[in-house]
Design goal:
The protein is built from five helices and no strands. It is mainly α and about 180 residues long.
């Protein structure tokens, strides 16, 4: 009888261990799933940012090509005809992009040093792609600004002075 009781206790203990083990595995899987879902949401948000900056870059490149292809004399109107307001908008946008680059770089560095992230999570790579596309968007916006400035400069009336043969002549014309 005592032996039956010992066997029964062992079986109950084994069932408790098995139930505890199953619970441990299930809870761990639930935590990993929750972590994975949160991580996927964060990666998806980062991917959306990357796509957004990629789109901005491509649109700027398309607009720059269109501006450069224009016959300046046929257009006869400057693009930035609002006293430089467009130039200010470009400058502000590029300044915002520069700030974002710093913020996202900082977050990428945090992800690199975060021990809870695994190499296969793709977080660091996701940030890297955002930074690449953000830089491309900034540079493309700057190129478009220069295309606008060059277009408008080509439309401005000539001073009637020049060509200049020396820096001194140029400086004298500017001062007059």
């Amino acid at each position: 009888m005592r032996q039956k009781m010992v066997v029964r206790l062992k079986m109950q203990n084994q069932k408790r261990v098995q139930v505890g083990l199953v619970r441990f595995v299930v809870e761990g899987a639930a935590q990993d799933s929750a972590r994975s879902l949160d991580l996927l949401r964060d990666i998806e948000t980062t991917a959306m940012l990357s796509e957004l900056f990629g789109t901005v870059a491509e649109r700027c490149k398309t607009a720059t090509r269109a501006i450069c292809a224009k016959d300046v004399h046929a257009a006869n109107e400057p693009i930035d005809d609002d006293g430089g307001r467009l130039h200010d908008i470009f400058d502000h946008a590029m300044s915002v992009f520069e700030s974002l680059y710093g913020i996202i770089s900082s977050r990428q560095k945090s992800a690199i040093s975060d021990r809870s992230l695994r190499p296969d999570d793709g977080v660091v790579e996701s940030f890297e792609q955002v930074l690449i596309n953000l830089k491309d968007a900034h540079d493309s916006l700057n190129e478009m600004l220069w295309a606008v400035l060059e277009h408008d400069a080509n439309l401005s009336p000539l001073s009637g002075k020049g060509p200049f043969t020396s820096v001194a002549d140029l400086m004298a014309a500017i001062k007059s």
